[in-house]
Amino acid sequence: MLVLRSGLTRALAARTLAPQVHSSFATGPRQYDGTFYEFCTYYFKPSKMNEFLENLKKNIHLRTAHSELVGSWSVEFGGKMNKVFHIWKYDNFAHRTEVRKALAKNKDWQQFLIPNLALIDEQEFEITYLVPWCKLEKPAKEGVYELVIFQMKPGGPALWGDAFRRALNAHVDLGYSKLVGVFHTEYGALNRVHVLWWNESADSRAAGRHQSHEDPRVVAAVRESVNYLVSQQNMLLLPTSFSPLK
């Protein structure tokens, strides 16, 4: 009995002292609160997008009374056309639920929404968080925006975060573009990162991109992050007349 008990004691001690194995699929740290951002994409029937935006402009105050609109854009280049993209900010999921209930009871909002739904062909919603090392920035003046969507290998920021951050910072620190925000998808296509950039114009964006491609500091940083990349897509965005981000 003493031999058995002694063997059990050694086994338990070994189990206690064994190093913990962390899965490579761990996503790493997130922000400290529940704040998230909903990416809403609307696809319109041809010739119907402008009609929808004009109607929404007249009624957007009914919607922004309940939660913050970060920005609203139409897609100029990249992917499907006749597309509008919104970013909404929420304190947490309970907040979003409260907003949805309040809007469902708002007769003025429903009076706008119901007839305008017929103008929409398709909708896509994603829930995202800012990556832990990024704060949402607001450009000081009007310009154009570029949304770059990166499909990353599984593992989250704990896997690709450092290399990805160095690649972005290489562009920012050298003045090739201004970073607005970096978002990691929680609901939607997983392992997806949305990077929102600002430039004064489409031409200044093109010039900065060409220069960065010839800068060995940027090339070295990007080459490292490419190891974690599956695919990428970008869109040039123009702010709508009622967008807080101009």
TrEMBL record:
Organism: Acinonyx jubatus (Cheetah)
Protein name: Protein NipSnap homolog 3A-like isoform X1
Residues passing through the membrane, by range: none
Pfam families in the record: NIPSNAP
UniProt-listed InterPro entries: Dimeric_a/b-barrel, NIPSNAP, NipSnap_domain
Coiled coil: none
Record lineage: Eukaryota, Metazoa, Chordata, Craniata, Vertebrata
GO biological process terms on file: mitophagy
SUPFAM superfamilies (alphabetical): Dimeric alpha+beta barrel (SSF54909)
Gene coding for it: LOC106979366
